[in-house]
Design goal:
With 374 residues, the chain is of the alpha/beta class. It is built from 14 helices and 9 strands. The structure holds 5'-deoxyadenosine (5AD) and FE2/S2 (inorganic) cluster (FES). 5'-deoxyadenosine binds next to loops.
């Protein structure tokens, strides 16, 4: 058995990749890890660290990107699914240190959409060809289970051919069950970081990684299509933390994964922190596509905010979903999770048209299917 030290390059004979494994601290090099990921769709935490250390190695990068594009094509052809995002409340009881709508931000101008406004967003979205609506909001106790159930039932009754995704944070198993019974199909809840200490440094003591993970497993048990995910380059994040995120995703096997670069917001604890890297986000999109070949993977607004071509680059790295904004224009700037968020001035139709153009210029086709996980 040949053993290699971390970082050692260009010495592994091609035919031996996969046989050459790590022992304790001694592990394979980046190219070898990439090939193992392609072969097995899974790596150990140490191997993910090695892979992430090679994020600027052009050869490794190209290999992963090509494989990600190949897999995405195998399962989804040139289709890009679209979700209409309705940001229906920016009230939040939590105080996540990175987020612009956290409870402690006295400068945030708060809003809640009425049921009628939400239904109008769906109507407009349906007219534009959307078959998935995403109701996203802060953790806002105003929207009781009863109100949410009524809203879910109404949307599913009026648009029975549409999927409904919720993204409203941590709830009890029973609440999730009620929403599911009312007709909700999918749930997005990013885990944010799978490392306990890092989780502590991004959130106040009232929140816990254990609860967050439990929520994700509860959602899976209830039959939701589940989305987890994390920010790339959040303050204090190391490659080891990201490796833990990847291992967690590997265990959870979510149908959807949302990742985007961290972007500082001026009214948060992290106002002066550096934003996350677009290139590393793209690299991770490819890695995630290979790990979970059928995953629904959005090219996120945060990626588009950090780079005018970010979403196009995301699609070319393995993403297959875009989420244009359907929220009323009057409220868009108020749903400010981070600074300089794009798409805050456009009407829904403009946003959809803009994205359709971007998708086709990137060589893909924006489709109107519900876009369930295959
Ligand atoms: N930068 C980038 N992404 C952020 N989110 C929240 N705040 C920021 C920020 N400052 C992400 C979180 C959350 C999702 C809705 O938006 O990952 O889960
Ligand atoms: Fe919203 Fe381009 S996607 S304006």
């Amino acid at each position: 058995m040949m053993l290699f030290h971390r970082g050692q390059k260009d010495v592994i004979p091609e035919k031996r990749f996969g046989e050459v494994l790590y022992e304790g601290d001694i592990i394979m090099d980046g190219m070898c890890a990439a090939k193992n990921l392609i072969r097995n769709h899974a790596l150990t935490e140490n191997e993910y660290v090695t892979l992430l250390e090679s994020a600027s190695d052009q050869e490794v990068k190209n290999l992963l990107k090509e494989e990600a594009v190949r897999l995405r094509k195998q399962y989804y052809g040139d289709k890009v699914y679209t979700r209409g995002l309705i940001e229906f409340t920016n009230y939040c009881k939590n105080n996540c240190y990175y987020c612009g709508i956290r409870a402690g931000n006295r400068n945030a101008v708060r809003y809640r959409l009425t049921k009628e406004e939400i239904m109008d967003c769906c109507k407009e979205g349906y007219r534009l060809g959307f078959h998935t609506f995403v109701l996203q909001g802060g953790e806002d106790p105003y929207y009781t289970d009863e109100i949410m159930v009524d809203l879910i039932r109404s949307i599913k009754a009026e648009f029975p051919d549409c999927a409904l995704t919720l993204s409203i944070g941590e709830k009890s198993y029973d609440s999730y069950r009620l929403f599911r019974e009312a007709g909700a199909d999918r749930y997005l809840l990013r885990h944010e970081t799978a490392n306990e200490t890092h989780y502590r440094s991004l959130h106040p003591a009232a929140m816990s990684l254990a609860v967050r993970k439990q929520c994700l497993y509860d959602l899976k048990t209830l039959g939701y299509q589940v989305g987890a995910g994390f920010m790339v380059g959040s303050p204090g994040q190391t490659l080891e933390h990201m490796a833990e995120d990847l291992v967690f995703l590997q265990e959870l096997q979510p149908q959807m994964v949302g990742i985007g670069p961290f972007i500082p917001h001026h009214d948060t604890v992290f106002a002066e922190e550096k934003a996350g890297s677009v290139d590393l986000t793209l690299y991770l999109l490819s890695v995630i596509r290979i790990m979970l070949p059928k995953v629904l993977l959005p090219a996120t607004t945060a990626l588009g905010t950090m780079d005018p071509q970010g979403r196009e680059k995301g699609l070319k790295a393995g993403a297959n979903v875009v989420m244009p904004n359907l929220s009323p224009v009057k409220n868009r700037k108020q749903y400010e999770l981070y600074d300089n968020k794009i798409c805050t001035g456009e009407e829904a139709a403009q946003c959809r048209g803009c994205l359709a153009g971007r998708v086709s210029r990137a060589g893909y086709r924006l489709v109107t299917d519900r876009g369930d996980a295959v």
